Structure formats: structure tokens, C-alpha cells
Amino acid sequence: MQPRGTRGGPFRGAPAGGGRRGAPQEGPALVGRGPSAGQGILQSGSTSLTPAQVLATGVKRPGFGTAGTRTRVVVNALEMTVPDRMIYHYDATVDKTFPPRLNVQLIKALQHDTAPQIFNPVGAYDSRSNLYMPNRLNLGAGDSRVMLLLISKDLRPLLRFSQGKQTQDEDVLTAFTALNIIIRADPIMNHPFNVRSFFPINGVRHAVGYGFELVRGYFQSVRPAIGKILVNVDISTGLFFKPGLLFEVAFDFFNVPGDRRDPSMFSSRAGFDARRRRDLQRFLTGVRVSVAPSNRVIVISRLSDVGANEFSFSLREGGGRTTVAEYFRQQQNQPLQYPSVLCVMTSRGSAIPFEKCTVLPGQIARKQIPPELTEQMMNFSRKRPEERMDSIRHGIQLLAYGQSEYIRNFGLHINTGPFLETDSRTLNPPQLRYGQGSSQPTVVPRFGAWNMMDKKLFKPINIERWVVVVFESPAKVNQTRVRGMIKDYINACRSVVLVSVGVSVTEQDPIVRYGNSQGDISTEIKAAGQDCVKKNSQKGGPDLVIVILPDHGNSEIYRAVKYFGDCVMGVATQCLKASKCLKANMQYWANVCLKTNPKLGGVNVVPDEQSASRLVDPSNPVIIMGADVMHPAPGSSSPSFTSVVGNVDTNVSKYVATLKVQESRVEIIMDLKSMVKSILLNYKDYRENAESIPKASSAPKRLIFLRDGVSEGQFAQVRDEELKKLKEVCAELGIKVNITSPAPQLVQKLRVSSFLPADSDTRSFKPPQGSRVADRTGNMPAGTVVDQGITNPVEFDFYLQSHAGLIGTSRPAHYNVLYDDNKFTLVTASFWVDVDTKGFYPSIGLTRYRVCATCYATYADIVCARAKNHFDPSSNVMMSDTATQISGSAGGMDLASYQAAYRPVSGSMARRMYFMSCSPNPTCFEKPVMFFSLI
Predict the structure, then answer these.
(1) Structural domain includes residue 404
(2) In this structure, what DSSP letter does residue 368 have?
């Protein structure tokens, strides 16, 4: 008979993973315990390596780096002392229909109220199925009183792994899982939580409109390091539903000003149409509300089509029918104030009037961030390094590790004293080379930036014919303003800010066409192109289409412009927001120039061959490929998109991209062979025809494949499957090439997010003028690398802060080297990428300034993110900014249908950097940004 728990729902124990029930498994004795574990074995700065018999998922650490200026950094990490003891793992299966918050409360009640004599001391639960106990439970005969004993887990393998003496096998991974569950057990009992973050009930909050508020929270994660176990703590930002009266939340969702908030607007009689009802329903689905006056809690499933005074239902007692409005009038002895307003409905079909509902606080909105809130979320999350560390210290006090009964019960200790310090190095940047005629042909970046005055672009492009299409009203953007913008852009291209950059513009008076933003966008773009042909005596269509977008409601226009420009016409397009254009200075237009030049086939700047000889070596050419996979939003059955981007030139500065549609949520790139083959053929073709390299020497000799987006648990699969395809393609093309494959991860996933100079008081630290210790924002300088102290005990990995800080806290990226034919032992060189200023916000890591040019949040990521632009906006494949959504008859589209609807970039744009600066709102900065990478 299946046992059942009390306090609200079924609870049972069951075997999982094939483990044997019964006595715990015993293991060998541990060498070293408690705080001394790992001491003298492999410490920060030690040159000891992992024993030969210990296996690695990727490449074993070959040594520690020496290049660059040695420094010290403070990391937001605390050291954990782990005892030599057993942890008992139980499969705690609760009803699968229950939400995690209810599961947590059920297990809490089970341990503290229902059976405290069994669960003494209490164990840690992960809100799903894993329960870890410090002692073996006494469940009586047959181990069947409440649940069945699964198997015990030993912390001994984890300690041996941290000492570099054991492979990271299933036992090690399970031990880390157990420790992560133990340290989060107390916070999730008392606060709203999401994965590894929790959000204090009385924490910092900020209303942002659209029915949401932002809440400051904290993240914690147990991580392995050389000779120690660490707990990383960081601040986190959560998107929550705004609490309060449902009417007020709905007003906020539609951004209705306070003086215009009339509840009757939510009546079909008042013009509340089906489209707005669907939008509101999509927002409110799954939201918990309390119903007055009983305070009964319900979960909104959908919204009614009609108001409470029209929604009728059958009475259970006595028969007959009544309306929701009449029912509540009788039950509460007073009529509804707004009877014509629609109702919220539960999954069982119950209908509740809007005015009786209040949205409960503490509800995480498990949705992707609406694009309208991106900037506000970044501003809320952004903190200078010392401010971020202060917030983390506050979070550590709130966590109160020493007071957690769960941490004490398992014999753990977390040192909450000063943050961990470790060795770091600052790499010397390479020199950059500009075009002929520059007064200073090479430049050495300082703090990740450099001055472009008196520089000519390495390969500037001539713009012969171009057009400007304005989708804002002439009243807001008149002809005079547009002609002024045109003049500023031409000046930026040729002389004013970027002196003599070399971009020439033949056509000084391009066609200006005002388009109907509510009409067919493709027709407007095509008509502008035809006008250009007529104006230029049938010499050809435009080289460039500059589109000025309205400030609001521009996402669909933008998508249509990109689809028709890139995929249909094969012409470069640059979208700009009207409000930015109207108040733009010359620096803004200089940025636009730097973006359009690569789109037209030009190159802005390249690394100097002498200072980056291992990267730019004509006798030993390198191709760098970046690959990424973008999955649909949770709950969507839409496909995933894969991209591979690679350079085609000797200077690793000119990139081409490939994009494919594949089965939803499959992480391995299924079409990798064809995508890599396309880039390799483009590489050979460009070198042979554009660089005049003999065919016999045009193939690369080194291939660096940066695979982004994979978790540590997927490293082995990527190594075994994708690298095999790489080798097969090279063999088919007769290319003999050495492959190195680092897998970069944005540290937002791991949250080792703050490197601070090791100063006596980082909170008041101000680096002296010209200091190499920190940049002007208080961040560590661009090129800071850490390969000791916080890195993996076995694997070849390192942290690299590749960009200069402008605002907030710069975050490093984490690289794991999965494969290495080239025998690179260290991070010994660096490379750069063209300036591209789409939303530079290093404080929360949402943009491309994170790892090298071809990888995360850079080219490969951008290509995936703009996948929706490859589907005709007028078709039934509807793509939103947050998810792929299907409407009408397209709801049953299969993968083949998506692949058939997909349209690749056409014409010469397929061999250009069409994906550069796709933002309609380019943000301008004084200087470009420096990048570093593994070479």
C-alpha cells in the first residue's frame, strides 16, 4: 500500500537512479578532514598538478599562467568546511501537480509537526524530489513507514576531488547537489525563491510598471576550488507580480495613468476588446489572488469573455440559473460596484469578480523580461564593485549560516569573515592597427579603451547609393531635421569626429521617404529602393537603407525591416530610434558609422601582427568559430535556433554567420557539419580571392571552436559529439588543422561575478591615477585573468575579465578547455573586436561584452537572438520578443514547417557582418572596448 503523508497531500519514498535500499555504502578513509582538508596538497599559487590516474571531462590543467602583471583580487566567495561524514539521500516524491512552494511546506510540516521523532535532526529538501538527511531514518520494519530508504552518499569523494585526487564522477556531483540543497534549505522555507536565488520578504523593491516590480535577492552556490570548497554569494534581481488590488495591477499592466483609472474600462461595453483581454489573460494566468471577504486563495486560469452581470451558471441547490453579479449580491448582501467588468476564472470553472480580488505579494513572475523593462532592470541591478560587495555582505548577514539548523545538522561550517583573496594577472593588450594614412597607424589600448582620433579605418567602404525611410510622423521628424541627420552622418563617416576615417559617401542627397508604420513595411522599403534606382538612372538599388523608427511600438517594424532588407533584398539596413536621432551629437553618428561599415563589407581595425603573432600569423593561420544554441521560452513548443560564426580573413576581423532551425530544446547542434563546412569554404574563398593566398595554403592550420551555452553536465556530450563532427568536416575538405575548444560560460550562471582589487578597504578604494590595479570605475582592468584559488581542482579552466568597466560591476567569463590539439598551456595572448555598442551593461552581463567576439552575447548569440527576423512577419509564424508564439492554424506547426518558413540572409549580405549592431537604439560611448581570449 502506498503510504501517504499528512498536511495537505500525498508523500511517498521510492527508489531513484537504481540505488540499493539498505545499509549505507562504506568508503576508504579520508586523508585530512575539516578545515585542513586539501592543505598542503594543491593551493593557490602551487605548481602541483593533478595525478595521472584522475580523469577530466575536458583538458587537464597543464599548469598555471605567468604572463602579465601579477595582482591580487577579492572574490565574492566564502570558504566552506566540509566534515568527513555520510549524507543520506532519500527520494521524496510529492504530488507532481503541487507547486514547489507547497512541496517545501509539506516537507517542513512532515519533519517538524507530523513526525519530528523520525526526522531528528531535520534534513534539507530541494522542493522537488531530493531529501538529504544527516542521519539514517528509522522507518520501522521494511523501511516503509513513510518512505523507502534509497542510498547514502559520502562526502569523502568530494573532499578528494577538491584535492585533485579524484575524478569528478557521479558521487562528486551528487555531493555538490546535496550541499547546495542544504545551504538553501533555510532561505526557501521563509522567502520566495527561484532556483538558487531567494528574495527577502522585506527586501528592496522597485515598481517598474507593466504589472511588475523588481525585488533585490541573493544567490548562493557551492563550487569546487583547488584544495577547498567555496560558497559563492551574489546579489540577484527577481521579477515579481506587483501586489495589490487586481484592478490596480491591471491598470499598471496597461500603463494607465492614475487620473484615468476607471475600473469600468475592463468591460466589453467600454471597448475592452478581445486582443487586450487576451494580453491581460496571458499576464494574469497562474497568478494567486485572495478573494474578499473570506480571503480564500485561488489561482487565475483565464478571464471570462463577458462581465459578471452576463456570466450565468447553474445553481447546485434548488436548480435554476443566476449570474455571478447576482450571486455575489445575495451572498454579501450588497451589489457589485462594477458588475459589467469581466471575471477571473479558476481551472475548475469558478468565476470571481475583478473587484473582489487582490494579488498576493511574493509571487515571482516566471516569465522572460518584457523588452520594455530591460533598461529599468539593468538600472536596478547595476552597482559599483564596492557597493555590490556591501550588498553581498548584507546578504551574508541575512543568510546567517551559523544559525541555520540545516547547516549545523550536517556538520558544515561557512567562514563568513573576509571574502576570499586569490592571485590574478593582468595581461598586456595587443596593439591595434588602423588603415593607411593614419597619423598613428598602431595604438595600444589603455584600460580596455583607446582613442580613435586621427585614425583611418582599416578597410573603409564607399557608400554610392542609399535611402532613408522614416516611420515617424513628419510633424515629429520633418524634412529639415532629416536632412540635418543626413549631413551629420556623412560628416561622421568622412571627417568630423573620426578624423579622415576614410568612409566616402558618393550620394550626398539620398532619397527620403516617409512610410506608414501601420501599413505593409516591406512595401515601403521596396518603394524606397525603387525610388533610389530611378533617381540614379537605373545604376542599381541602394547599398544601405537607414530606417528611423518611432519611439514606441517599433519592434514589429524593426523585424519587418530586417526580414525584407537582409533576407529578401540582400541590402544592409540600420535602424535608429527617432528620439535618439533628434538629439544626437556627432559621437552618436560616429557610432552609427562604425556599425554600418562592417555591414557593408568593411573592416574597422585589426590586431597588429607583431604584437599578436600567435593570433595573426599568415604562415600558421587561425580560424575562430563561435557556436551557440537559443532555446524557446518556458512553455513554448517552438524550435531552437543554432548559430555558428567564424572569421574568414587572416586578421580574424571579418566574420560570416550561419543560422539553422532545429528540434526544440536540443542542446547539441544537429547541423553543425554543414554550418562549419560553409564557414570553412567561405574562409578559403576569401583568402584565395580577397587576400590572393594560393589555394594550397588557403586553409587554416589552427581552429579555435568556442562553444557557448552548455552547462558543465553537457561538456562531455559536446566534446564527444560536436568535436567529432568538426573533425569529420575537416577530413572531408582535406584540411589538416589542430583544434582547441574552450567552452566559455557567462559567470552569471556561476555567480563568481565580482573581482575587486585586494585593498585594505575596498569600500573606499580609489585607484591612483595611472594605476594598473583597477580602472577608473573601481573594477579590475580589462585582461584580468584568474587561474588559481577559485578554479577547478582537475580541469583546465580560468576566469577572464575581458572588458573595461564603464558602469556597475564588470563580470568575468569562465572558460573550460574541453579539447586542445594546439597544446595551449596558458592565456598568453589577446585579441579584439570592433566596437559595437548595443546596450553596454557589464553590471548584469546581458550584452556581448563578455567573452571573445565570436561567442557569448556576441556574434553567435546575436545571430541566434535575431532568428525571428528570418520569418515573414505577415505569415502565420508569429514571433514575439520574449518567446516564439504561434497563432491561428499555425499552432500545430512541426519542425519541418518552421524550417520551410525560415528564410536565410540573401545576396552579398550572407558574406557580411549583417548582424552587427542590430539595435534600433544604439548607445554611444566615448571609446570602443577591449577583448581578450584564449590563444
Answers:
(1) yes
(2) P
DSSP secondary structure code for residue 713 in this structure: G
Prior bond to 121 cis, omega within 30?
Answer: yes
**Nearest to 119, CA basis, from 13, 278, 214:** 13
> CB of 216 within 8 A of CB of 228?
no
**Omega into 10 within 30° of 0, i.e. cis?**
no
Range of the domain at 662: 612-761+816-905
- Rounded Cα gap, residues 676 and 908, in angstroms: 19
Q: What is the pLDDT of residues 569-613, one digit of tens each?
A: 999 999 999 998 988 888 788 888 888 999 999 998 888 888 777
**Which of residues 567, 599, 631 is at a domain's end?**
599
Strand, coil or helix: what is 93? strand
Residue 592 in domain: yes
CA 8 to chain centre: 37
DSSP strand pairing (702-707 vs 738-746) = parallel
Q: Is the pLDDT of residue 23 over 60?
A: no
Answer yes or no: are the C-beta atoms of 263 and 340 closer than 8 Å: no
DSSP bridge pairs for 505 = 463
Given a cut of 80, whether residue 557 has pLDDT beyond it is: yes
Residues 6+ apart with CB under 8 A from 99: none
- What is the residue whose three cell numbers read 582592468? 781
Q: How far apart are the first and last CA of the chain?
A: 62
- All 3 cell numbers of residue 147? 518512505
Classify 731 as helix, strand or coil.
helix
Residue 119, domain member (yes or no): yes
**The domain that contains 538 carries what CATH number?**
3.40.50.2300
The average pLDDT across 384-395 equals 90
Mean residue pLDDT of the chain comes to 80
Name the amino acid, one letter, at 209. G
Residue 64 lies in a domain: no
Between 203 and 856, the higher pLDDT residue: 203
3-state class percentages of the chain: helix first, strand second, coil last, to nearest 5: 30, 25, 50
Q: Of 538, 567, 599, which one is at a domain's C-terminal end?
A: 599
DSSP secondary structure, 314-362, as one string:
E-SSS--EEEHHHHHHHHHTS--SSTTSEEEE-TT--EEEGGGEEEPS-
Q: Do 741 and 820 belong together in one domain?
A: yes
Cα separation, 79 vs 604, whole angstroms: 46
809 residue type, one letter: T
| pLDDT tops 70 at residue 95 | no
Distances (CA, A) of 86 to 132, 134, 151, 229: 10, 7, 10, 17
Q: Mean pLDDT over residues 851-869, rounded?
A: 70
Rounded-to-integer distance, Cα 917 and Cα 174, Å = 43
pLDDT tens-digit readout, 166-195 = 998 888 888 898 899 999 999 988 899 987
| Same domain for 617 and 534 | no
Q: Is 129 helix (H, G, I), strand (E, B) or coil?
A: coil
Going by C-alpha positions, the residue among 517, 500, 357 that lies closest to residue 438 is: 500
Residues 346 and 317 in one domain: yes
Q: Read off the pLDDT of residues 239-285 as tens digits, 9 standing for 90 and up.
A: 999 999 999 999 999 999 988 899 999 998 888 988 899 999 999 99
User: DSSP E strands: which ranges in 366-517?
Assistant: 413-414, 420-426, 432-433, 442-443, 466-470, 511-514
When divided into structural domains, the chain yields a total of 4
* Ramachandran class of 181: left when φ > 0, alpha when ψ lies in -120 to 50, beta otherwise: alpha
Same domain, 840 and 896: yes
- Which amino acid would we find at residue 394? H
Are 315 and 276 members of one domain? Answer: yes
- Which residue is listed with cell 510633424? 475
Please say if the pLDDT value at position 437 is more than 60: yes
Copy the grid coordinates of residue 260.
484615468
pLDDT digits (tens, 9 = 90+) for 502-530: 688 999 999 999 999 989 999 999 999 99
DSSP per-residue letters across 559-580: HHHHIIIIIII--EEEEEEHHH
Same domain for 437 and 410? Answer: no
Q: Indicate if 258 and 220 belong to the same structural domain.
A: no
Same domain, 408 and 476: no
CB 635 within 8 A of CB 487: no
